[in-house]
Design goal:
Oligomer: single chain
Structural class: alpha+beta
Strand order of the largest sheet: 2-1-5-4-3
Number of helices: 17
Order of helices and strands: HHHHHHEEHHHHHEEEHHEHHEEHEEEHE
Radius of gyration: 42 Å
Distance between the termini: 65 Å
CATH class of the largest domain: Mainly Alpha
Helix content: 55-70%
Length: 494
């Protein structure tokens, strides 16, 4: 995202001039910095910067003003300590700081254009007057004292210097800065609005260009004036070839049909149309699409363009299926994951209840799998898991479920069993297939499996305990030498 502060214009509300020089270098350097901070503040106001940024600039302006005033008063007190002019000058400093702090407290109101202009006008007017009159007057007295003049003489010389034509010049300069600041603020706002409009247009172009929806723009007669890459892809034509063609010629279905012409007329009359249609792909196949048409009018409400957006419902269905598959299946093996297993288990239990059949819930854990990962690497281990998953699926019946819980743990659901002993030959065949060597690259890997079995409803009618007790039976199988299966009812600890 573009940083608004990076767009701040260097244009100056208060242009610095060497004529502002008081003749005391340290004061002049600090005056220049104050003017810079004022210009920054005005630019941020003109560009509508956020409150955090405005607070930061306000704080910097107030802090620097305090530092500068301390410097000035130190110089004035060195030469004019206790003089009424020095005390009066210090009070103007305090008034300025108080005004900056006050404005900081109502920053939210500065979104109002009039309030912003009043604030900038006050700051520029005060600073110009302070530099040209107050500070220059005090500096002239100090410079006179440094030349060896008496205090009375130095004051008189400074008074003569600040009277008459000089005072009129100051008033003319102040008027000039009032007018200049107002015009510059208006210019900055215009630049800001133009840049933001350009940025919005750039972002809109990026969105259109990257959209997966096919987007086209035509004149009121239906001649194509612009398309996005997705539209080019959908009709398998380049942008240059499409420009100037009739949308009805490019997509005869639906636009060249009677229904398509009626839709076009309704769009021109009502301003928009949205609905589901059939569209023919370049390969000749029909697909269902969602079409949205909208008109773009000029300032006198004449229709200049028609914008169309075509979304393939078939693609949306396919995308939904992809997301559904990812949510319910193990990414490595493609088997159902724990989420889908819970659904399959619930269905299998309901089937068992309705048909008075037996369900075997089996937990399978591979034997000696960890050394494969440790010695040959996880890539080989992953391939072994994929091969084992495929073999398990092929070894069982089509209605059975094989799911992966994670790692080398799998769950098998054998449903529609008429008797408990029907599960054993199926699982023995499964063990045989899993135990076959697996060839991965130049390696031949041998794995086995231990299976624990829980029968529903014979061994347990509590659904929540099925996997838990199958896990207990599986660990008994491993303890008895691995590569075998154990039914929970055979568990000696039961």
């Amino acid at each position: 995202m573009t940083n608004r502060n990076a767009l701040i214009s260097p244009a100056e509300i208060f242009p610095w001039s060497d004529n502002f020089a008081t003749g005391i270098e340290s004061i002049d350097v600090q005056h220049h910095q104050l003017v810079n901070l004022l210009n920054q503040l005005a630019a941020h106001m003109a560009y509508g910067s956020d409150e955090v940024t405005l607070y930061k600039v306000f704080d910097e302006l107030a802090d620097y003003a305090v530092y500068h005033f301390q410097t000035e008063e130190g110089i004035w007190n060195q030469y004019l300590g206790g003089d009424a002019m020095t005390l009066a000058h210090a009070r103007t400093h305090q008034d300025f700081v108080a005004e900056v702090v006050r404005v900081r407290g109502v920053t939210g109101a500065l979104s109002n254009e009039q309030a912003t202009e009043q604030m900038v006008s006050f700051l520029t007017h005060w600073l110009a007057f302070h530099i040209l009159e107050d500070d220059t007057h005090m500096a002239n007295i100090v410079l006179g004292l440094q030349r060896g003049e008496s205090l009375e003489c130095a004051k008189e010389t400074a008074k003569l210097h600040m009277s008459g034509a000089a005072h009129m010049l100051i008033q003319a300069v102040l008027t000039m800065y009032d007018n200049l600041s107002a015009r510059t603020m208006a210019l900055l706002r215009e630049i800001s609005q133009r840049r933001r409009a350009e940025e919005r247009l750039r972002l809109s172009n990026i969105i259109v260009e990257s959209s997966t929806d096919a987007i086209f723009i035509t004149n009121p007669q239906g001649l194509i004036t612009e398309v996005n890459p997705a539209f080019c892809q959908s009709v398998q034509q380049d942008r240059e070839a499409l420009l100037g063609q009739s949308i009805a010629a490019v997509q005869a279905e639906p636009f060249a049909s009677d229904k398509g012409r009626a839709i076009w007329d309704a769009t021109l009359q009502n301003g928009q149309w949205t609905g589901e249609l059939s569209s023919r792909r370049p390969d000749g196949e029909l697909e269902t699409v969602w079409l949205k048409l909208s008109i773009i009018q000029d300032e006198v409400l004449e229709t200049r363009h028609v914008v169309g957006m075509v979304s393939s419902i078939s693609q949306l269905v396919q995308h939904h299926h992809t997301l559904e598959t990812a949510a319910n299946h193990d990414a490595l093996t493609g088997l159902p994951n724990r989420r889908l297993l819970d659904d399959r288990l619930a269905q299998a239990i309901e089937y068992s209840k309705r048909n008075s059949t037996i369900l075997a819930v089996c937990l399978l854990d591979l034997d000696s799998f960890k050394p494969i990962n440790d010695t040959l690497g996880h890539a080989v281990g992953d391939e072994v898991l994929r091969v084992v998953a495929q073999r398990m699926t092929q070894a069982l019946r089509g209605a059975d479920t094989v799911a992966r819980l994670g790692g080398d743990e799998f769950v098998v659901l054998l449903g529609d069993l008429g008797a408990a002993n029907e599960a054993k030959p199926l699982l023995e065949r499964l063990l045989h297939e899993v135990s076959q060597p697996v060839k991965v690259d130049h390696h031949t890997v041998n794995v086995g499996a231990s299976i624990g079995v829980m029968l529903y409803p014979n061994d347990c009618a509590d659904v929540d305990d099925l996997l838990k007790y199958a896990d207990v039976a599986m660990y008994v199988a491993k303890a008895q030498g691995k590569a075998c299966l154990k039914f929970y009812s055979e568990n000696p600890t039961q």
